[in-house]
Amino acid sequence: MARIVRVEAVMVDLKPKTKRVDAIQSFVSQETPIVRIFDADGAIGTGYSYTIGTGGPAVMSLITRTLAPALIGREADEIERIWRDLLFLTHATSVGAITSIALAAIDTALWDLRARKVGLPLHRLAGGARDKVPLYTTEGGWLHLETTALVEDAIKAKEAGFGGAKLKVGRPIHEDVARISAVREAVGPGFEIFTDANQAFAVDEAIRRARHYEPLDIGWFEEPLPADDVEGHVRLSQATTLPIAVGESLYSHLHFRDYLARGACSVVQVDVGRIGGITPWLKVAHLAECFNVAVCPHFLMEIHVALCAAVPNARWVEFIPQLDTITSVGMTIRDGYAVPSAEPGLGISWDFAAIERQAVEGSRAAIA
Length: 368
Hints:
The protein is of the alpha/beta class. Helix content is 39%, strand content 19%. It has helices at residues 56-67, 79-89, 97-118, 122-125, 147-159, 173-187, 203-213, 230-239, 253-262, 272-275, 278-290, 301-310, 352-358; strands at 4-13, 20-21, 26-27, 31-39, 44-48, 133-137, 164-168, 192-196, 221-222, 244-246, 267-268, 294-295, 317-319, 327-329, 332-334, 337-339, 349-350, 365-367. It comes from Segnochrobactrum spirostomi.
């Protein structure tokens, strides 16, 4: 490898193409920090992360003022050492969302750089467990949509070969049950229906709702409680036969240890953009494997397809297009499966001209 000589950072704000509403929020903005790391040989690695709506300027400040300067002169291939050093450098703000999101942009860039230099796609460099992963869709299951729209989207997804669809829950119980039931009747028993509460409920309400959802053959009950309520998830897991899915709002691999050790979940949804990058993502995936628990990551399908193909216990990739306006080639889908790119690196074909056009004013920075 070679030492890092330059870091560039910029942020784009990717407005959702469709209205996205869940039980606690409406998505109006997706701030996306993008980091490029240059080594002394002239190789370049590109990484990214994201926020939903707010926090992007704080992430960019942490990257450009603290993390990127600490990279200059470092051996680019020492990814584990760099990740741990940067985590310690920011220990006063760890564990937290801003720090983990900033670390993710840098860590994914370092993995991209390594993969490009050795000529391997990420899914092979990180494990090479499979060559495709089943897809489920979330784009047609938002809470504001009418039941007829949920049904139509689920039918289209099934016809396209997708294995399942996610429905947001959080309306009155009878409405949620009616919406799920309508979709189940339309798609039949061979199609997975997942539900997502986005941390909306208290324990008693989650237990009550789980009992109503159980007869509908739900694939999982996602984020039923606030993410920091491990004990509540233990109580819920013991009270229902539904698989409980958590992870998109956890920002440390150690948090997953607590959930798995306590039997507080049965599906892990670790998000590379929120956990701090590929380095901790792989730790969580292999930890979950030791507990015989499936990994079904949240969002970021363009990079999660490679990570899911790298590990043996990944079950699903979530279909929510994110990077269409700043990439030249989209994720490959065949017969309802996500297929990782065979190109060296993360497998994302960045359109840097488009990134430049969409850059948030004042967000560009270069550190050498």
